[in-house]
């Protein structure tokens, strides 16, 4: 069994992992991450759709999404109770900690096969956080918020405004192509052709998820998550993430490639915020 299957054992035999399993029933197993990248780092492992890619698993499946959403709430509650076991955290306003200092979501390219949702505190103060990739996998667009996986998101008016602005911008970009000697429609055709997959890969627009967070929509448009093309794009995406600068999760300071400086700074930030620990 490869390391990519490392989570399967928790689904098969949760009773054998009492130290790590926080909760299990017929639907899910909730565990502490074996290599926590923050003070609190839990994983929700739904039993259903366990071998689906996280960006697809909830696709047009609101029932499943809502079910897992309930387990996200449960995990937060377990975490809130565990705060009390740490002296300094116990003094905090647990509700506020849960609402402002947690991230819930998935990696757009998971390293482990079984579907898992991360619930992680934003301190990233952990000896297991050992390199830029570890950090950026939670602090860039590589991490997709669970909310964004909702198949039928309730759009608020602000989001609708942003959509409209984006459309207007795309339209004005198309108009400027007229200056390059192409009509807007010819230019659209060219653009469409460039986006089209080779003819051997059938397009399935009816399967195109409409809820995927925009930066990843190109990964999946009309293609299977496991096609060679998608894998190539996934790899490219990983490389891009390795290149993005390191940004402090507390104050937004840019550390570029200086991972060890960021680690020192994260420790300072942690001590400042949770000074009595
Ligand atoms: Zn900072």
TrEMBL record:
InterPro entries found in the cross-reference section: HIT-like (IPR011146), HIT-like_sf (IPR036265), Znf-C2HE (IPR032566)
A Gene Ontology cellular-component term: nucleus
Compositional bias segments (type: Basic and acidic residues): 165-174
UniProt keyword annotation of Lyase present: no
Subcellular localization, as worded in the UniProt entry: Nucleus
Region Disordered, residue ranges: 154-210
A Pfam family: DcpS_C
Lineage of producing organism: Eukaryota, Fungi, Dikarya, Ascomycota, Saccharomycotina
Single biological process term from Gene Ontology: single strand break repair
Domain spans labelled HIT: 9-129
Keywords: DNA-binding, Metal-binding, Nucleus, Zinc
Chief place where the protein resides: nucleus
Record's protein name: Aprataxin-like protein
